[in-house]
Amino acid sequence: MKKMQTNRLASMTWPEINKAAQQGRVAIIPAGTLEDHGLHLPVDTDIVIANRICQNLADRIPDDVVIIPPITFGFSPHHLDGPGTITLRWDTFVESTHQIISSLFYHGFRKVLIINGHGSNEPVLDIASRQAILSNPDSQSAMISWWSLQKVQETVKNFRESVWTGHACELETSLYMAIDPSLVRADLFEEDINPYMSQHFWADLVSDAPEGFVNPVRINEYWSTVSKTGTWGDPRTSSAEKGNAIIEAAVSELIEIVQEYKLRPIRPRDPKQGEPFKSRNKIVHGESPRFIS
């Protein structure tokens, strides 16, 4: 008989979910999107990578986390020229994510951590996490993108061969090769670099630019104006070994983050308004200001 997994929410019964919340486990949400990833990777790349990192995390610290099904539809309007891209409007994304987090809070989870796999999700996931805390001040929500993890950045700097990484690049392609090589079209690997990058306007997935490039200034143009194939980087230098190294680095650091996060105190608010305004606000607004939630 197959052993039941009691840290994947979709496969758990409601009593098991109740128990997990009462144990103080961190609810982990993988987040991605559906969008074009060059000629050689499937449109589910961001989802698959984030989800695999979270699944491996759950296998390593099974009693500390519960993995929530991935956020599949992200914020990708700039990729709409690529067939297969499905996007939500920014405010729809923020509100739906806010409600997902708040649902978990309602069921007793006090800590939510989103592991993001899509760059343009970052600002809207940040807002959704902030909103969730504002409307649920007895709980905490946080987010991080896998490529922002320090151990990932150090690992990548040790093996990278391509000048630029960004999208369907050496890193994402290596990760997909490690996860499911049967879906990677290696015969279609093609280097494609944004030809309009300059001293201040550039992007690299791990913020590692050649000499002479500074800042960078953030700008998100339609993807079809900066990439012919949908790729940003050189997938020809990819390997499953590199992908496995990235996954291990990400999981290793996330274990530390989760264990620290579990112990992080949730501090009560301390409104500084004087009376009678403090009492009035409690009556009118309840635990959190109505106009911000």
From TrEMBL:
<dbReference type="GO" id="GO:0009231">
    <property type="term" value="P:riboflavin biosynthetic process"/>
</dbReference>
<dbReference type="InterPro" id="IPR003785">
    <property type="entry name" value="Creatininase/forma_Hydrolase"/>
</dbReference>
<keyword id="KW-0862">Zinc</keyword>
<dbReference type="Pfam" id="PF02633">
    <property type="entry name" value="Creatininase"/>
</dbReference>
<keyword id="KW-0378">Hydrolase</keyword>
<protein>
    <submittedName>
        <fullName>Unannotated protein</fullName>
    </submittedName>
</protein>
<dbReference type="GO" id="GO:0046872">
    <property type="term" value="F:metal ion binding"/>
</dbReference>
<keyword id="KW-0479">Metal-binding</keyword>
<dbReference type="GO" id="GO:0016811">
    <property type="term" value="F:hydrolase activity, acting on carbon-nitrogen (but not peptide) bonds, in linear amides"/>
</dbReference>
<dbReference type="InterPro" id="IPR024087">
    <property type="entry name" value="Creatininase-like_sf"/>
</dbReference>
<feature type="region of interest" description="Disordered">
    <location>
        <begin position="267"/>
        <end position="293"/>
    </location>
</feature>
